[in-house]
Structure formats: C-alpha cells, structure tokens
Design brief:
The chain has about 375 residues and is mainly alpha-helical. The chain is built from 14 helices and 4 strands. Helix 7 packs antiparallel against helix 10.
Amino acid sequence: MLYREAGQFKTNYVDDQAVFPIRQDRIGIAVILAVAFVGIPLFGSDFFISAVMVPLLVFSLAAIGLNILTGYTGLLSLGTGGFMGVGAFACYKLTTIFPDVNIIIWILVSGFFSCGIGILFGLPSLRIKGFYLAVATLSAQFFLDWAFVRIPWLVNNNTSGAIEVPSRYLFGMPITGPMAQPEVRYLVVLSIVALLTLIASNLVHGRIGRSWMAVRDMDLAAELIGIRLYRTKLLAFAVSSYYCGVAGALMVFLWYGSAEPAVFGIDQSFFILFMVIIGGLGSLVGSFFGAALIYGMPIILKAIVGLVGLQISPATVEPVSYYRARGARATLAGRQAEAEGLAIPVLRVQTENQNSARGRARHNKRRETRGRESPC
C-alpha cells in the first residue's frame, strides 16, 4: 500500500459513497486519463497504438463484463466469445441497414442484442450453478458458433461468410475502414471503455453491486435478507453480456476491420476468462491488469529482448502465452475442485458414521441372540 486514508474524513453520505473517496485515487485516475488521452496519441507509434493499446482496451472491456458475472456475482460463464460475436454481428447488420446513423451509436446499441441473448441463456441460473451453469453457458457458446456459420443473413449473404467493415465517419474523419487513422480509432475505443468502466464502477459500488456480492458469498442468506435471486442473477447476465457485446463490436469495427465467425470461438471465451482469473476476481482494475498480462506479455517480452540486441522468435514467445494460460486453467480447476470437494469429506464422514451404526446394530443383535440361546 503506497498511501492510506488516514486524515481524510467524510462529513456526509455523498462523500462516503463516492466511487473514489480517497484524494490520491482521484489524482491517480486523473494522471492515468491524461496520459491515455493526450500522451499516448501524441507520442505513441502507429504500431503501439494499433497492435497494443486498442486490443488491450477491447480485452479489458470484455474482462470487465465477465468479471461482473463471475467475479462479483459468482456465476461461471464460458460463453463470452459467443456474446462478443452477437454484438459484432448485430452492429454489422445495424450499420448496413441504417448507414446514415453514427457508427458509435450502433456499437453501443449492439450490446443490447447481446444482453437479450445473455438473459435467455441465463434463465437456468436460478436452478443450477457452479459446474452445471458453466456447461449451460458452454452450450450457448456452441449454439452461437453454429448460428454465426449457418445463418448467412447475419453477413448479408456474403460468400466469404465474414464481417466486412464499411467506412464510417465522425466529424469528417474516418473512424472505421481502411482510411481510419490509428489515433482516431484509439481515442474512440478509449472513450467508450472509460465511459463503460465508470458505469460499471458505480454499479458495483452501489445497491446493485452489493446485491451481486451477497449472491456470490451465499445465495441462500441473500434470499433470506430480501434479495431476489432470479432478478439479481439475470441482471448480472444482462450487464455482463452487454459489456461483452460492445467489446465484440469494438474488436471487429475498430481493431480487426473484418472478422470471421471463428474469431468468437470457445478459445476466445477461455482467453477472457484467464484474464479475469489472473487479474483478480471481483476487481475492475484487475481486469485491465489481467488483459495487460495475458495479451501484452509476449509483446513486452519480445520488445525488451530486442532492446538489448538479442533476437527472439515467435516460437519462443508463444510458450509464454501457452503456459500462462495453462496455469490459469489449473487455477480455475483448483478453485472448482475446492468448491465441489467440500462435499466429499462430508459424504465420507456420513458414510463412515452410517457403516459404524450398522456395525454396532449387527453386533448388538448377535449378542442378544447369543444371550437368548445360552442355557440358564
């Protein structure tokens, strides 16, 4: 801890419920935003902005969406890639049907389509949880993968079956398409991510966020104190899917430029899940750190090695991502086994007690039988 809250007193409830109640936090956020909005566009190279910062922000937004569901509500989801695909395909259809509407509006609106799909597949969350809910969301991922490939209407019957991003303008400047400058695309992505991060921070620090965390800690106790489980869980699915849908639209329209359905496969879901686990469950800042570590580590490693005059091949960098992802998968499996393994000792103790009781009963019965058969 670099600083403490000592000496910063709150005299009203508004100050006490502020998102950034500590003065140093507010100063730090202001410095980070100044560097992000001014420093990076002025001094960052086109490669750094296009290949590092834009995807880092996109993955961070997707990780925030999954963190709301898994980290704050305790509901494991493996359908993040599919929900991102819903947002991307919805944005593509909207921008081709209504070409005169600003593309930023459709990027934000496309999240509502993903929100509806998330609510639909979140309906079983009241009856099942843990591993079984993960399987249910995994089925959503496979169904959406099938739909993206088998429904040509989603890509306007293109023979390639891919999303082809058209050129769209904002204040006379292209923000999508081949003519868009990296700085412009970066500022658009940064503005959307900053806005949605602020909204997410207000949600998790308010009544809704406290309800999510109560359900995560113990859903039965949360229901006893008056929290409606069904509505709370569906709201978490809705908000999480919205964020993932917007992230998918940003990924295709402001980063890739075009995309095939394979981009939103199960690998993408695990990729985002590993970011949340490594960055920290139940932490919005951890979503950014997790995205930076998972996505940026191979790039940073290659750059650092190049600064000292050494050459490193992609075959050397790739195992870093592989083993880091495998470590995150092992962490997830360990937590799942720990959660499910709590029932194993209980069942073992119950079984041993039942066997001991049966053994004592048989022993007492034999003693009674021998006592009746023995001569007086």
